[in-house]
Amino acid sequence: MNYVEIILKDEEGIIFHVGSDSSNFTHTVSYDYIDGWWCSCEQYTYRRCFCKHMQRARECAEKEGIVLDDNIFLGLDDAEKEELEVGSYGG
Ligand SMILES: [Zn+2]
Fold first, then answer.
1. For residue 25, how far is its CA from the centre of ligand 1 (angstroms)?
2. CA–centroid distance, residue 61 to ligand 1 (Å)
3. Inside any domain, residue 70
4. How far, CA to CA in Å, does 56 sit from each of 17, 62, 76, 83?
5. Which domain range does residue 16 map to?
6. Per-residue confidence (pLDDT) for residue 84, from 0 to 100
7. pTM beyond cutoff 0.70
């Protein structure tokens, strides 16, 4: 089932339901204006990828005139983010 549906849209972000290509499973994709993208699929859960569901959700939003970036929610606190940016030296 290849579809994208906007479930909720408010000042904090957008929530989509995106159908999977390979099954009739539906993934939940959300975009938070501060934190970025989140998806319920394994690609995001294990690899923090900008997955195809996010891509389709973003295309759907664009059709509604909403332009979104590709910032991904990593689920890290600020200290962990800093560590990733700085790299692993000095530790
Ligand atoms: Zn996904």
1. 11
2. 16
3. yes
4. 10, 10, 25, 31
5. 4-86
6. 61
7. yes
